[in-house]
C-alpha cells in the first residue's frame, strides 16, 4: 500500500501521550512530518517523544485550560508555523447518566468540546493570515447516533461534529481545511471493560492514524473509521427513530456503554476523574 508523503509539514497533536494520538504521531513521523505532541500527562508525552525520535518535541498540555493551550501553540510554532493541528485529546466517561457526578459531566465538556474550541481559536488566526492550514478534530461515531450510557460523551462528540462542520463553512475560502474524524470502537483504554457491537469490528489506533494521515494528504470533510461505520450511520436519519432503535438494539449498540465491567475499567475511570 502506498502512503502519502507529508515531509515538510509541522503537525501539532493533543492527547498524544497514548492511544490514537500516539499512533498518529508515529504514523505522521514515518511519513516525514515534523511532529509536536502535547498531553496532560507530561511524563507520558515525554516518554512518547522518546520513542518517536530525538527531534519530536513534547509539552505538558491541559486542553481545557486556555492559557495552557496558548502556551502549547506558542511552543509548537516557535521554530516554524503549524501546518496542521489535530485536536485529539478527549475523555469517555460512561455509565448511567444519573450515576455520574456533575464534576464528571463538566470535565467531559471542558476536555472534549472546549479543548477543540480553544485549539481552533488559537491556531486559526495564523493559518488564516498565511492562507493555508488544516484543523482536524477527532470526534466519534457516538456523536452521530444515541448510545445509552454515554449521554454526555455523545453530546460532546456531537458538538465536535457540529463545530467542525460550521467552521468549514464559516472559513470557506480562507485556505484552511477542516476535517472531522469519527472512529467507532477503537482498541484503546477508552473502551476498557466494554463489548463491541455485533456488526462493526474494533479498529486499531493505527487504523485511525492512517485515516488521519490520508486526510492530511488529501483533505476531506468527514472521515469514518472503519469506513463501514459511515455506511451504517448515513442512512439512519432516513430510517426514523423507531426503526433505528430496533436495529441498534439488535446490534447491541444500545447496551455497549451500560453493560460493561467496572473493574476492568477502573484504572481508566480513576485517571480521568482524578485529572
From TrEMBL:
Keyword tRNA processing: no
Organism: Antrihabitans stalactiti
Signal peptide from the UniProt entry: none
An example molecular function term from Gene Ontology annotations: oxidoreductase activity, acting on the CH-OH group of donors, NAD or NADP as acceptor
Classification via Gene3D superfamilies: NAD(P)-binding Rossmann-like Domain (3.40.50.720)
Matches recorded under Pfam families: adh_short
Family indicated by similarity: Belongs to the short-chain dehydrogenases/reductases (SDR) family.
Transmembrane segments: none
Alphabetic keyword roster: Oxidoreductase
SUPFAM superfamilies with a match to the protein in the record: NAD(P)-binding Rossmann-fold domains
Protein name: SDR family oxidoreductase
